[in-house]
């Protein structure tokens, strides 16, 4: 697949709602990328303000991000083909780390996270829906070796959205089509996926994206999980998967997508609302307070973010550009500070 690179520091302004995409030639893109990279690299001391992602000539959309704090790396998923890009906190230019377009059965990808050993976990979104031979998720070593490509049990239409590492070292994947969380771990018998929590009867399944963003609470006793279509937050106890509603003090959290917890501060990224909510969250994840909201960049739809080396990195998804997105494609550092 022919690749293009971002041509400028910032995306062109979008009109309210839908933008018309323009694709320039590969030669023009490559020349502009060199200029952009040189400019970005000189803007900050040691780390650029933005990280340039490779893109497809037909247009790319991005969603998830995972970070390897130990090595200073980040991984970004591409929705349009399932490629995984990798970047270094010190370098402007990211690279394609894993191919998509059917590689290891992956045609799309969503949430990404990294465990303490550097293994990379990738949620497949709708990759397996209607295609029983395609995996719902993947696990790779830090060297890019495929460790596991798995279907989740019990449902043919799981939409695995986001993933977080639990207190036990296993990976926990949210399902946007049902109020479920799946646990993925390695044992003596190999890698396996199991249904860990089913909140049917407590969390209503409604139209749109249900369970999405997920983070571990400060005391590691629970996961805080966002339900984007209703704007609710839910607590899933790590001991037994017991589910309870978190009182959000009436805050509007509709379109809640990625969650970031830093100590007792929780950030909720509200993608198409183009808002970011911040609040204090209890150590056990059972209550929030002091909710405040601020607008994010009106020309970007941020989906999620992660902290890397003390700085927030947010993914500009390009979800609002129709019919096809255009560059620049990037991850933005400290986007709303």
Walkthrough of the structure:
This protein has 337 residues and is mainly β. It has a single domain (3-333), classed as TolB, C-terminal domain (Neuraminidase). The protein has one helix at residues 26-41, and strands spanning 3-4, 50-52, 55-56, 62-68, 73-78, 84-88, 95-98, 112-114, 120-123, 137-140, 146-150, 160-165, 171-175, 180-187, 190-198, 211-216, 222-227, 232-237, 243-246, 259-262, 265-270, 275-281, 288-295, 302-308, 311-316, 330-333. The strands form 7 sheets. It has a 4-stranded antiparallel sheet. Strands 4-5-6-7 form a 4-stranded antiparallel sheet, with no helix packed on it. The chain has a 4-stranded antiparallel sheet with strand order 8-9-10-11, with no helix packed on it. Residues 1-44 have low confidence and may be disordered. It comes from Agromyces fucosus. This is Gluconolaconase. Residues 1-21 form the signal peptide. Keywords: Signal.
Characteristics:
4-stranded antiparallel beta sheet, 337 residues, disordered N terminus, Neuraminidase, mainly beta, 41% strand
Write the layout of secondary structure elements.
Blueprint: E1 3-4, H1 26-41, E2 50-52, E3 55-56, E4 62-68, E5 73-78, E6 84-88, E7 95-98, E8 112-114, E9 120-123, E10 137-140, E11 146-150, E12 160-165, E13 171-175, E14 180-187, E15 190-198, E16 211-216, E17 222-227, E18 232-237, E19 243-246, E20 259-262, E21 265-270, E22 275-281, E23 288-295, E24 302-308, E25 311-316, E26 330-333
Antiparallel strand pairs: 1-3, 2-26, 4-5, 5-6, 6-7, 8-9, 9-10, 10-11, 12-13, 13-14, 14-15, 16-17, 17-18, 18-19, 20-21, 21-22, 22-23, 24-25, 25-26
């Amino acid at each position: 697949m022919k690749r293009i690179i971002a041509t400028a520091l910032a995306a062109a302004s979008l009109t309210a709602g839908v933008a018309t995409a323009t694709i320039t030639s590969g030669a023009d893109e490559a020349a502009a990328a060199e200029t952009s990279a040189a400019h970005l690299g000189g803007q900050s001391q040691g780390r650029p303000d933005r990280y340039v992602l490779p893109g497809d000539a037909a247009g790319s959309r991005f969603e998830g991000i995972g970070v390897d704090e130990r090595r200073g790396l980040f991984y970004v998923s591409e929705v349009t083909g399932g490629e995984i890009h990798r970047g270094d906190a010190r370098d402007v230019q990211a690279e394609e780390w894993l191919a998509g377009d059917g590689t290891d059965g992956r045609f799309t990808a969503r949430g990404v996270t990294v465990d303490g050993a550097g293994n990379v976990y990738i949620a497949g979104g709708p990759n397996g829906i209607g295609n029983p031979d395609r995996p719902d998720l993947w696990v790779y070593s830090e060297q890019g070796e495929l460790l596991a490509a798995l279907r989740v049990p019990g449902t043919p239409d799981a939409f695995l959205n986001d993933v977080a590492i639990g207190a036990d070292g296993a990976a926990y994947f949210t399902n946007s089509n049902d109020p479920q969380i799946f646990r993925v771990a390695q044992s003596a018998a190999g890698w396996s996926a199991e249904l860990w929590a089913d909140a049917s009867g407590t969390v209503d399944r409604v139209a749109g994206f249900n369970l999405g963003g997920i983070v571990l609470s400060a005391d590691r006793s629970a996961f805080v999980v966002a339900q984007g279509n209703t704007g609710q937050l839910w607590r899933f106890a790590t001991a037994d998967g017991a589910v309870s509603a978190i009182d959000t003090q009436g805050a509007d959290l509709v379109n809640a997508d990625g969650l970031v917890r830093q100590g007792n501060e929780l950030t909720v990224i509200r993608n198409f609302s183009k808002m970011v909510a911040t609040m204090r969250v209890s150590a056990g994840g059972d209550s929030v307070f002091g909710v405040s909201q601020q607008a994010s960049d009106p020309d970007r739809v941020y989906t999620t973010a992660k902290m890397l080396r003390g700085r927030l990195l947010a993914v500009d998804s390009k979800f609002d550009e129709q019919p096809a997105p255009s560059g620049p494609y990037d991850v933005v550092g400290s986007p709303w500070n």
